[in-house]
């Protein structure tokens, strides 16, 4: 018997009461809702340290990105219409080759107004791109912004690669000596372009 099986057997022997999955309906009935989810998402994205900007009708998205990140040299994106990218991350075989990526431009599937989180469904070959890039630009359709996590969880998918994650602003931690460190586990800067 493997050590894994030993551990599972010990847990089974020690577990005497089985609990059923809780009914989440009462919680959903009291979940936060907002009169304007787009406005609330915009506000919360700023609260969590990110930036949200609106793409105006007729505005060139590539020009907006270049003006926002003029020093970015190594820009990754596999999104159609993003011409300011310098390479397609799907052409990278080893995720370590993504190290040194200044900016990644990715697609957000769902925005959550209550906390400024964006559901990212893996649509690049190497998911390391979402965490190793110094800066992230997330493109988000304003029609995909929901009130709360209850609504968001009903809509998430993990797509072709079977992976997804929520990103809410830049990566930050204050675990070490209670000093705030930006970019410890992901991007130092996150901008959501709401279109």
UniProtKB/TrEMBL annotation:
InterPro entries: FTHF_cligase-like_sf, LUD_dom, NagB/RpiA_transferase-like
Superkingdom of source: Bacteria
All residue ranges annotated as the LUD domain in the record: 99-194
Name this polypeptide is given: LUD domain-containing protein
